[in-house]
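Budget justification aside, the reviewers requested a transparent look at the raw inputs and outputs of the sequence design task funded under Objective 1. We therefore reproduce one unedited record. The lines immediately below are the structure tokens for a 330-residue chain.
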């Protein structure tokens, strides 16, 4: 019962956070102008974005199968892909629950132990975390000034005045300070329980990379990893052409907006609702566009991807259900 109450409280917090961020995103928006922007959008580009999003899911499913093969398991390719679709489908409603649904879905049709599946999922998340850091670094190099301004906008007060222009520098200075403190007091810090957890994470990261290097088809694994993140980038970038006001934005601008979009998805709210709209719209304001245009763009991309995830996820659940029934009768 205590676990149930904790989960209910956690989900309530997630919903509250989503509602709060939606309010921040839409509180000063002209609904007439927003509808005007949405009604004149070129939705062919949104369809292309949706196709790229599903291509990333297909590639992620194949990559997962590659991770399972060295363990002696060879699931059907489409079962692996459909299980990944279930992951995103469940995350639309319950943040962070998709990984459990993904593993149990594949377990039910392929008889692969759940603990083995979770092990490969942790490795995948580690690899994707590294790619996300690389995207941040590229965006930081290309758009340092924009990122500083985004920090200022997202820390603005209720009157819309910008936050401290030194916020980003204070953040960097704080990180440098932590490094300095670590080297001065490293023996005491290394004795703390939290340091042991960080060390275990780093050890797991290294072991994960070693296991990838031992794969027979590691070239295919890395090719799929790059393909996934290239699709993540272009499914945002191509939507620039859906709205006239964003059609002039560059590849560098795309990396900047992708960082904001990634942060919006990382924040634990159902389907990224609110967080995605707020951060992406603020990123476009930093690029010199109006908030209405920013919200129109965020709404178009988020709605297209949500529709794709809902449709493919529901289809995947139905297909896996049929697969389970077929398996029981044979």
């Amino acid at each position: 019962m205590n676990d149930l109450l904790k989960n209910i409280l956690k989900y309530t917090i997630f919903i509250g956070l989503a509602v709060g961020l939606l309010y921040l995103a839409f509180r000063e928006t002209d609904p007439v102008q927003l509808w005007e922007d949405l009604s004149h959008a070129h939705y062919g580009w949104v369809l292309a974005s949706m196709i790229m999003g599903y291509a990333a899911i297909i590639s992620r499913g194949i990559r997962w199968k590659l991770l399972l093969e060295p363990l002696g398991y060879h699931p059907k390719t489409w079962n692996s892909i459909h299980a990944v679709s279930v992951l995103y489908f469940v995350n639309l409603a319950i943040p962070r629950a998709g990984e459990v649904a993904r593993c149990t879905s594949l377990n039910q049709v392929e008889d692969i132990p759940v603990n083995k599946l979770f092990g490969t999922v942790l490795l995948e998340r580690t690899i994707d975390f590294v790619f996300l850091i690389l995207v941040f670094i590229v965006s930081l190099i290309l758009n340092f000034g924009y990122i500083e301004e985004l920090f200022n906008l997202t820390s603005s007060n209720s009157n819309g005045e910008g936050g401290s222009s030194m916020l980003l520098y204070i953040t960097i200075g704080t990180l440098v300070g932590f490094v300095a403190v670590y080297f001065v007091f490293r023996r005491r810090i290394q004795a703390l329980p939290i340091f042991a957890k960080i060390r275990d994470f780093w050890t797991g990261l290294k072991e994960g990379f070693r296991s990838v290097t031992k794969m027979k088809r590691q070239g295919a694994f890395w090719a799929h990893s790059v393909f996934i993140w290239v699709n993540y980038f272009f499914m945002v970038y191509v939507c620039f052409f859906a709205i006239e006001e964003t059609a002039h934005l560059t590849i560098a601008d795309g990396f900047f907006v992708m960082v904001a979009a990634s942060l919006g998805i990382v924040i634990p709210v159902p389907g990224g609702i609110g967080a995605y709209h707020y951060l992406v719209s603020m990123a476009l304001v930093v690029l010199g566009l109006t908030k209405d245009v920013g919200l129109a763009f965020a709404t178009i991309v988020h709605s297209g991807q949500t529709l794709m995830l809902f449709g493919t996820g529901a289809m995947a659940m139905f297909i896996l259900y049929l697969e389970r029934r077929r398996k029981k009768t044979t």
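The radius of gyration is 21 Å. The chain is about 80% helix and 0% strand. Computational costs for records of this kind are itemized in the attached budget.
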